[in-house]
Amino acid sequence: MEKVTVFSSHEAMYASLVELIDNVLGDRPAINISLSGGSTPKAFFDYWAEAKRDAGFWNRIRLFWGDERCVPPDSELSNYGMTLEHLLGKVPVPAENIFRIRGENDPDTEALRYGELIDKEATPFDLIMLGLGDDGHTVSIFPSSIDLWDSRQTCIVNSHPDNGIKRVTITGKVINGASHVAFLATGYSKADKVREIVKNNVGSSYIYPAARVKPESGNIYWLLDEEAASLL
Ligand code: 6PG
């Protein structure tokens, strides 16, 4: 079921994603979630931490990342570092439930290691959180490297087209194999690509990696604020 929801407030949007996670978790012993990076998740993680600080379920949440910049975890560019600041430092996720991509390692070695880890521990993911780049990228697969989407590998190394910073990223088969996929997109800068992708405009899946997110489960949710949805 593809569901596109436009929220009049960020708080309502975050509450909806928290509810989705609650529903995926249910009374299951544990679930595997792949987190998105960049800046959009910061406010969601703050909200989630505040809303569920005493929930008592954090030992049943196993956290992975969809991509990571090849930088040390204490770098301001690190997705893990961002998550530590906005979520992990506030809630009692056991250390053994945190599976970070080691950005400080050799990228090729880390891509193999993390891919094997996902294959062993988290296939399929119960939920993959995704962001949307202004250019239509998602995780660290960009329009200029869209062919990497179809890699047979679970994790690959890619480089950001503008700053050249290497990234380790999951690939299309991991995303489309997930039980649930949730895009979180806010702001006017996303509106053009949201329209192109959500409306499934002709050719979008040839150009934008985010347009190739079509989980076999059919469970894809677009959580948008009014600005990101302003061209729908
Ligand atoms: C990353 C992300 C990336 C992000 C989009 C949106 O490491 O940058 O995983 O895919 O989700 O670029 O980024 P913003 O949330 O900062 O707009």
Question: In words, what does this structure look like?
Answer:
By secondary structure, the chain is α/β, with parallel strands linked by helices. The protein contains seven helices and nine strands. It has a six-stranded parallel β-sheet with strand order 1-9-8-5-2-3, with helices on one face. It has a three-stranded antiparallel β-sheet with strand order 4-7-6. Strand 2, helix 2 and strand 3 form a beta-alpha-beta unit. Helix 1 packs across helix 2 and helix 2 runs parallel beside helix 3. It starts with a strand and ends in a 7-residue tail after the last strand.
Summarize the topology.
Layout: E1 2-7, H1 10-25, E2 31-35, H2 40-52, E3 61-65, E4 67-69, H3 79-88, H4 107-121, E5 127-130, E6 155-159, E7 166-170, H5 172-176, E8 181-185, H6 191-198, H7 204-207, E9 220-225
Parallel strand pairs: 1-9, 2-3, 2-5, 5-8, 8-9
Antiparallel strand pairs: 4-7, 6-7
Helix pairs in contact: 1-2, 2-3
Name the descriptors.
7 helices, binds 6-phosphogluconic acid, 232 residues, three-stranded antiparallel β-sheet, alpha/beta, six-stranded parallel β-sheet, 9 strands
